[in-house]
Amino acid sequence: MPPPECPGLTPAQEKRLKLAVEGTCELCSEYFALPFLDIHRISRRQYREMKRDPSTRILVVCHLCHDHIHHLPVPVRQQREIVSRRSFFVRRDLRRVFGYRPRPYSPPEEIDVSQIFDEYFTHAPPGPFRLSG
Ligand SMILES: [Zn+2]
Ligand SMILES: [Zn+2]
User: Fold this and answer.
1) Is 70 inside any structural domain?
2) How many beta carbons lie within 10 A of that of residue 46, not counting itself?
3) Is 129 within the bounds of a domain?
4) What DSSP line would sit under 103-125, residue for residue?
5) What is the number of structural domains in the chain?
6) Using CA atoms, how far apart are residues 120 and 93, in angstroms rounded to an integer?
7) How far is the CA of 42 from the centre of ligand 2 (A)?
8) Residue 114 domain-assigned (yes or no)
């Protein structure tokens, strides 16, 4: 058996990563029992736009696809496309396994405050609510 590619991961973390993608291979989208899935680490050397988020550095793949990634090989660009197509929930769950928290979201400058209040008032009856400040 080859050595694990992500030596920093505990078996429990690996299992949670596999569960986060609901036991499906991220390359062929087939469902597999967890022992038939691997954690592939996207090549660090070529991954120039490396982000701090560790979940963007791995793929959960079946044994066959994992072989393909290394022997065909599947271009890093394509591996990154898979990462960027992940759903919000998969991304969130993967990050949790790594204990990674993205920086708190800061709203863009041009946010339209009046629109937010419009939305509030269409969903809630006017009451004792007062604008503070
Ligand atoms: Zn696969
Ligand atoms: Zn690999």
Assistant:
1) yes
2) 12
3) no
4) PPP---TT--HHHHHHHHHHHS-
5) 1
6) 30
7) 7
8) no
Per the model's pLDDT, the better-predicted residue between 124 and 99 turns out to be 99
Q: Determine, yes or no, domain membership for 2.
A: no
How far does residue 48's CA lie from ligand 1's centre (Å)?
Answer: 25
Residue 41 CA to ligand 2 centre (angstroms): 5
How many angstroms is it from 113 CA to the middle of ligand 2?
A: 47
- Cα(27) to ligand 1 centroid in Å equals 5
What residues contact residue 34 under an 8 Å CB cut-off, 6+ apart? 15, 18, 19, 23
122 alpha carbon to ligand 1 midpoint, in Å?
A: 47
Instruction: Give me ligand 1 centre to Cα 130, in Å.
Output: 55
Give the predicted TM-score (pTM) of the model: 0.68
Residue 52's domain spans which residues? 11-105
Checking if the pLDDT of 41 tops 70, the result is: yes
* For the CA of 38, the nearest ligand: 2
Over 70: is that where the pLDDT of 71 sits?
yes
Mean per-residue pLDDT for 57-69?
95
86, pLDDT greater than 60: yes
pLDDT, tens only, 94-121: 999 999 887 776 665 655 555 555 555 5
